[in-house]
Design goal:
Shape: globular
Structural class: alpha/beta
Amino acid sequence: PPASVLSDPGQCGRHAHALAAVLDTTGLEAVVHAPSGLQMGTPAADRAADGLLAYAAEIGASHVVYHACALPDAPESEDALRLESRSLAALAPRAEQRGVTIAIENLAPVFPGVEPLSANPMALRGMAHRIGSERVGLCLDLGHAHIVAELRHTSLEALIHPVLDVVTLFHLHDN
C-alpha cells in the first residue's frame, strides 16, 4: 500500500486484514515491498516504515523489502543517508519484535542518471552490518546486479559473492 495508508493505523490495519483474509485462501507466503520512493529519515517516512512493519506482521509476511541508499554518492546526500541509517537502525528492534526481516534491495542505475549508492551491494552490506540486527539483511536482486556487473565490466559472481553472508532474500528476473 502507499505511504499514506501505511501511516494511518486504521487504514493500514483494514488493508492488512483484508489482504490476510485473501492470502489465507491461497496458501501463499507474502513478502511486502516498501512503496516506491519511500526514504526513511523524516518523521512522515518513518511512520510509514513502522506501518509497513505492522502491515507485514499482520499478513504474516517474512520480509519487508526496502530501497536504502537510493541516492548518489555525493556530498549533498550525506545528511539524508545518515538520517536514513539512523531510522533504519531504530526500526530494527521493532522488526525483531514482530518477526519480520527488513531486506535492503540493491538497485540498478536508471538511464540516464547517476548511479545510486544502492547499486553497490557492498554499501548495503556495510549498512546491514553497522545496524547489527539479525532482522536486517539484503534482498539481492540478481537482475539489478547483472546490470551493474555489466556496467562495471566484471562478473556477476565477483559483484555478489562478498555480500552473500547477509542475503536473506533473492529477487530473480530476466533482463
